[in-house]
Amino acid sequence: MSCSVRCIQLLAVLAVTSVLGFGQAGTGRIPPSLSAPSTPLPSTPGQTAPAQSQSSPVSTLKAKAQLVVVDVLVTDSKQQPIHNLKASDFTVTENNSPQQIVAFEEHVTPPPTAKAPTMPRLPPGIFTNYTPVPAGSAVNVLLLDALNTPMRDQAYVRDQLREFLKNTPVGTRIAIFGLNDRLVMLQGFTSDLALLKSVVDRSAPGSSRQLPDNVGNGGTRMPSQMMTDVMGDATDMTQLVSSVQQFEAVQAAVDTQNRVIQTMQAINQIARFLSGIPGRKNLIWFSGSFPLDIFPDNTIANPAAVVVNMDDVFHQTTNLLARAQVAVYPIDAGGLQTNNVPIAVDSGPASSGMGLAAAQTKLFVDRTSKQSTMYQIAADTGGKAYLDANGLSKAVSTAIESGSNYYTISYIPTNSAADGKFRKIQVKLAQQGPTLTYRSGYYADEPAVKSKRDPELAAVSAQPNSLTRAMMRGAPDATDILLKLQVLPASNDVEKKVVPGNIFNTEPAAKLKITPPFRRYAIDIAADARDIHITPSSDGHYLFSAEVITCVYNGNGVLINTAVQKAYGDLSPSTFANMRYTGLPFHQEISVPVDGQYYLRTSVHDLDTDRYGSVEIPVASVAKLAPQPAVVSR
Questions:
Q1: For the chain, what are the domain ranges?
Q2: How sure is the predictor about 309, in pLDDT bands with cuts at 50, 70 and 90?
Q3: Using only C-alpha atoms, what is the Rg of the chain?
Q4: Does the reported pTM lie above 0.70?
Q5: What is the DSSP code string of 453-502?
């Protein structure tokens, strides 16, 4: 299980920390240097990359500890934020054991006149997954969940969002994601309200193939119901109808299980996208139906056949959200719920005299399961659930306002054992009356250990794993690892064959009539060394293991070509010290068909921690640039 808190290795660097490439200690990330990445790092085990300067080794302390970061919202009886509190006003306990606060900061909504940072104009061929955000303020993300929401409710959500955008304070920065068969970024972070409104207007409701009642009118009739209508009370057909009902219930449970996994994996993607942005992030999630536990169904012969518990999937996601400092605000897309169970037949062999009663019981159980899941994910991440209420625009405004005024408290646990057990966090104020909202706790897992749950999830479901999702065409850039890329043609020449070692997908290429010539592109990458798990060895060197992946997609998202390289670093002390500032360099080459529209998606994957950094670019943006100078092998 991955770490459920924002785990920071406390590394005391006894040297000057004016960072040229990737940031400055204590200030969060800044844009990478605009110079080209340095000499490529050899990918052969045992080799080291050359030092870029005569920097002396960095002295470090051997001790390391886990830092627990907790965002606390403090409000009065009118749900208004309380400001100007001090660290001495708070007490923190973990499993009832007092903890010492080592860092404390208050965050408030920036004034409307505050200007958001702008991304520096990058030279041609230079790209990054860095996302500029206002300093010290929270980031807001809207997730329009069509996978779990009937189309009728999706239309209602969009109407409410239009109402919200009419009254949104100037300067509020929002990103919008959509989820159906996959996660897509509809709009990156912007404070342009007209642009956000146009995105909402363009995002028409989508039909979910896995939602039983996709229309939302409660009138969907199953085959067993139609059989009952035709057969009436034919007792010799009772067993057949019962068997069909059993099959329908089990199939519905499988569909629900797949929806849960697909939704959690999409939220994991959002967490990875947000992880590189400092501070709190508010994920406002519009969903119409999301049960985590499938309870026994007493309308079928074997009620326990549909019982599925997805707690492991849920815990993995909440762990990742906590590490990325993301608070979830689930909003029930259906608004105020009523009893919409249609009048059922209360007699006959198929219903056993329990049609209406059983249907009402099932409605209650399904609603309870959905709401308990939303309450749980809000509590586990420090957000708030808005259920059974109309006026979704007001809920969005409240979530953004409350999530933008908070205190960040950090402490080092007195119990440092990575035993995987749940640690309950309690935060209290000396004064009585205010309401405190914060995440309920975390699982004390080893921070730098790759999660073992993705293979388990793959065995349960056919949904793509985290690597596949990180490399999907059009997916949000992952920012677990901050990257700077230079992408240039390797030469002006074209080639009849792809780069040796590239994995060319011949079957799609044949169907799409993709033929030579190809152009080779050189991709030079600098990855922030602080985001990659680097461990000291017994001989004083520093080790890491990673892989670099680049995929070529056409405009419709069809995978055409792939390059994969493993990189096992064995760095000398001086090289390691230098790369803490310049980044870890990687080099890769890949072939792209000359004719047609294509996209490159490059990712650096830390194999020890399962963390990603990814960048996607259109090939057209670099196709006419001057070729890259030849790289001298050392």
A1: 30-60+477-634, 68-108+405-443, 139-402
A2: low
A3: 27
A4: no
A5: HHHHHHHH--S--HHHHHTSTTPPPPBSS-EEEEEEES-S--BSSPPTT-
